[in-house]
Amino acid sequence: MHIVTIEGIPYAWLEQLQEIHAHVFDGANLPLEKLEKKEGLLCILAVEGDTLIGFKLGYPHPDGIFYSWLGGVQVAYRGQGIASQLMKQQHEHIKTLGFHKVRTYGRNTFKAMLITNLKHGFDILSTFIDEKGRHKIIFEKTIG
After folding, report:
1. Which of 56, 121, 127, 134 has the greatest CB tally within 10 Å of its CB?
2. How far apart are the first and last CA of the chain?
3. At residue 87, does pLDDT exceed 90?
4. How is 67-106 classified by DSSP, letter by letter?
5. In this structure, are residues 21 and 28 in contact, taking their beta carbons and an 8 Å threshold?
6. Per-domain residue ranges for the chain?
7. Residues paired with residue 136 on neighbouring β-strands, in sequence order
8. Which residues contact 127 (CB under 8 A, 6 or more apart)?
9. Where is the N-acetyltransferase domain positioned along the sequence (predicted)?
10. What is the spatial distance between Cα 120 and Cα 16, in angstroms, rounded to a whole number?
């Protein structure tokens, strides 16, 4: 496995990215148009051969903090630390872009990701109910 970092839309990986996203997020679609609206999109991809096995997407938030937006790993590859590797690579890369903080939102339904966030030094700032009525946890971390 190797990690690929793409600033912008990962056109060559788009179909596989959308498949993993749909599986991780209960069939939810991730249209190209939604990605195109994310200015400063950063894509960190875990690739084995010519197969995408995991991803981490984020973009700069207007308040100057980098927002780690979406991520997921194919079921067959879970439990191998891939999400952690993607997160570490994202944090290293955004440091080079001048960011000092990263924020993400989590949901209780994705407990493995909540644990991963805590293991990697994120603090819980607060919680809120989103527009779809889902309870979300706000995590934030200061990076080097």
Report:
1. 56
2. 26
3. yes
4. EEEEEEE-GGGTTSSHHHHHHHHHHHHHHHTT--EEEEEE
5. yes
6. 2-142
7. 128
8. 135, 136, 137, 138
9. 4-144
10. 27
Predicted confidence (pLDDT) per residue in 14-41, tens digit = 999 999 999 988 889 999 999 999 999 9
Confidence band, pLDDT 50/70/90 cuts, at residue 56: very high
What one-character-per-residue DSSP string does 118-129 give? HHTT-EEEEEEE
Helix 111-119, helix 82-96: angle, nearest 10: 50
Token representation of residue 4: 């690929």
* Rounded alpha-carbon distances, angstroms, from residue 77 to 40, 46, 72, 74, 98: 28, 10, 10, 6, 32
Tell which residue, 48, 56, 49, 62, has the closest CA to residue 17.
56
Give the CA distances from residue 8 to residues 38, 57, 75, 115, in Å, rounded to whole numbers and listed in that order.
9, 10, 26, 28
| Domain spanning 2-142, CATH architecture | 3-Layer(aba) Sandwich (3.40)
Is 96 exposed, middle or buried (CB count within 10 Å of its CB: 0-12, 13-18, 19+)? Answer: exposed
Query: What pLDDT, on a 0 to 100 scale, did the predictor assign at position 26?
Result: 85
Confidence (pLDDT) at 89: 98
User: Cβ–Cβ contacts within 10 Å for residue 48, how many?
Assistant: 13
pLDDT for residue 144 is more than 90: no
